[in-house]
Amino acid sequence: MWEELGKAFCLMLIIEGILPFLYPDRWRKLVATLAFIDDRRLRIMGLVSMLIGLALLLIMTN
Q1: How far apart (Å, rounded) are the C-alpha atoms in residues 17 and 54?
Q2: How far apart are CA 46 and CA 52, in angstroms?
Q3: For residue 12, what pLDDT is reported?
Q4: Which domain holds residue 30?
Q5: Is the dihedral of CA 8, 12, 14, 15 positive or negative?
C-alpha cells in the first residue's frame, strides 16, 4: 500500500508542476488572483476537486 501511495504522490507532483513549467507567467497571475478569493469559495473549489478525484478513482478501480 505504501508503494502505491508513494507513486500517487509522485504523480501528483508531476501533474502539479506541468502548469508552472509550461506557463510561468499565467501561473503567477493565477496564484496572485487566488490570494483575493474568499475562504468559502476556496473551500468549495477544494471540495469539488476532491469529489471529482474520488469519483474518478472509483471509476478507475471498478
Answers
A1: 21
A2: 10
A3: 92
A4: 2-61
A5: positive
